[in-house]
Amino acid sequence: MNYAKSILFTIFLSLVFIIRANAAIIQLPEHFKITNSPFLDKITSIQDLECKVFLSKQNEIIPVDGTIFKMNGQELIKTKEKLYLLISQTGVIYQLEDKVDSSYTFRRIDNTININYNIASNNFVWDKHIYSYGGYGFWKLNGHLRSFNFLDKEWDIVPANNEIISNGHNWFSKNEGRVYVPFQAIVNAGIVGPESIKGTKNYDSYYLDIASKKWIKLGSMHASTKKLVEEASVKAWDEVNCLECANCCKAMTPTFTKKDLKRIAAFLGMTETEMYNKWLKTDEDNGDIVNQKQPCQFLDKKTNFCSIYEVRPDDCATFPHFKRKPFNDFNHIHEQNIQYCPATLKMVNHLKDTIDAGFDW
Ligand code: SF4
Ligand code: SF4
What we know:
The protein is of the alpha+beta class. The protein has helices spanning 2-27, 38-45, 194-198, 223-239, 247-251, 258-268, 272-279, 314-318, 331-337, 342-358; strands at 31-35, 51-55, 74-78, 83-87, 92-100, 103-108, 122-126, 129-137, 140-149, 154-157, 171-173, 178-181, 184-186, 200-202, 204-209, 214-220, 255-256, 280-282, 289-291. It has three domains: 1-103, no CATH class; 117-221, no CATH class; 227-358, no CATH class.
C-alpha cells in the first residue's frame, strides 16, 4: 500500500512539474523588442567582437517577469555574425532577428521543454554551432556536450568517447575548439548521502576536442599544486591589514544563519525577533537573512572594529573564505569578492604569478 502511495505521489509530482514547466514556457514571448539599449548599441557596433557576457540582474534583456525564469540568469553570446540570448539552466535561446537604428527584435529559436538538468552548464558557440557542456540537475552532475539542432530546435547530446564530469570549473578555448576540465567531482548516484551529493574529487585533467569528439587526458594534478592557494593566501595576509580596510563590513552584507541570530541576539540582550526587525531582512532572491543597510550596524566607523567580534556571524569569521574546501567550489565567491576585498585580489594575483612562473601552458 505504501509502495502504491509512493508511486501515485511520484506521478502527481511529475505532473505538477510538467504543467509548471509548460506553463512557464507558454509565458515566454516568441518575439520581443528592445529599444534604447546603450549596451546593445555598443556590443553590436564592435563587428569583430566574439564574447560571452553574463548579464547582471539590472541589465537582463529577455522579459521574464511573471515567469518562473525570473530568478534564472541570462547570458549573451556574440559571434561575428549573430547575437544570442540564453536563459541560464533552461536551453531557451533567443536570436537577434532584426536591428533598426536602436531597436532590436529578438526571436525565440528553440522548442525546449525546461527540465533543469543543466544548472551551471557552460554555453558557447563554436564553428556556427551553439553548445552547452555539463551542468547539474536531478541531484546529478553530467559531463555531456549538447549541441543545439537548428532543424528540430532542440538540444542533441553529442556522442563522445567518454563522459568527463566537471565540478563546475571548466572553460572553452575558442582557438583550439576544446573544453578543458582541470578536475572533476564525480557524482552520479542520486540522493544517497552527503558524499555522493558533493562528489568524489578526481584531480585528472582532460580536454574535449570538439571536432573529433574525443576526451583526451592531459595528466593529473601534482600534490604541490593544491598547496598553491595556501601559499598565496599567506602572502596576501602579510600585505593587507583588515583594520585599514573594513570594506566587507562597509560594502557587503554577511548572511546570518539561525545560530548566528540566536548567539548575537543573546549577546546584545535582545530577542531574535527584535534583532531581525531592527536590522535585518530576508533577501527576496535567495531567502538569505541579511543586513537591511550597509555599512553594517555593528561596525565602528572610526576604528573599523566590529562591536560584536566575539559572536560575529560565521560568514564574517570565515570571510573571504580562502580556507573553505575544496577551494575551486568557491570560485564564484572569490570572483565576486575580488571587486570588494583587497586580500582576495592579492591572493588571486599571487596565485596567478606563481602559476605563470612555474608552469608551461
Ligand atoms: S558583523 Fe562585524 S564583521 Fe560582520 S559585517 Fe558587521 S561589522 Fe563586519
Ligand atoms: S574586504 Fe577583505 S581585506 Fe578588507 S577587511 Fe574585509 S577581508 Fe579584510
